[in-house]
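Comment thread on ticket #2218

A.B. wrote:
> Attaching the input chain for the structure job we discussed in standup.
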Amino acid sequence: MKKKLKIIFLSVILFIFSKFSFASNDENIYDKIDLFGEVLDKINKDYVDEINHSDAMDAAINGVLQSLDPYSAYMSPETFKEMETETSGKFGGLGIEVGMEFGVVKVITPMDDSPAEREGVKAGDYIVKINEVQVQGKTLSEAVELMRGPVGSKLEITIRRKGIKKALVFEITREIIEVKSVKSKIIDDSVGYIRLTAFNENSSKQIKDRIKKFKKNKINKFVLDLRNNPGGLLSQAVKISDFFLDNGEIVSTKSRKSFENKKYFANQGDIINGETLIVLINYGSASASEIVAGALKDHKRAIVIGENSYGKGSVQSIIPLKNKGAIRLTISKYYLPSGKSISGTGITPDIEVEESSDEFRIGTETDNQLDFAITLLNG
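C.D. wrote:
> Ran it. Output below, let me know if you need it in another format.
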């Protein structure tokens, strides 16, 4: 039986690789295929427990994808279905956006008013244990699966945070997470404040509607808050940037194939008519958030305040597979109007204002970044 399984594995791999033409630096690829077969044979013969060959193949596929970059990954049919449920805007969980870095799960950002944010989880934290299970060595999908569970149930996560020697332990209760991408309010009867938490399908329409209401109230100073916004749809980042620009390039994307490269430009018509605009960012601002902040900064259309952003300068596509699973694959990298890539470096604010304390929460009395922006606008 084991010999038959080995033959099936190798046949599948040989079939896959037969579809590719290899460059000169790939001459030893068939030696690697033989090596894979040898490793599989050793596992079958000597591993302490019987293995699930389907899970092993899933892990192999995911390993290939995650060797490319931190954002490419395999999703089983079950994981893909759950992801589609999450994008509907309502799901159960902790309320954190995560990625993989150096084999460890890294928090890109906690969502506003989520269980994780309320307990004190921060962007940049590394999750090392979930309910006493070591995370290092597991795939991102496996780690996410450990964090899922019935609404109302509790789990314990152990976190390592830069600058703090001792590990932090949080007990968090899972909740229904409702994604509300746009919030707004008028501050001091003079400033229109818009908080964007994600770039969903309706984000641009919601922002446009809020700005119309502000203008009816004679508001002529604006704050666009992109802190702890992990990104989302590229198309929405382009539309929202376009709202505040009269012309010029917003962003360009470059793919492996030059004919797939694209440039996106602003249309004439700034919907706030050139009025003063401040954009707030922090380390939890990633991807589409960085496109907006970077475009508005490069065109000197907004003052960017806060902390250096995350530095995610790539675009992923969800590609469905025949088994009803999918892969998340990086298909292009994006560049700001200046030609700069923000991968690994992020957007540097015009004015750096650090978060006030470990108790910092967006939009509360401890939010000194927003206070600074309001003072600057009313000064």
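A.B. wrote:
> Thanks. Noting for the ticket: The domain at 180-316+329-378 is CATH 3.90.226.10 (2-enoyl-CoA Hydratase; Chain A, domain 1).
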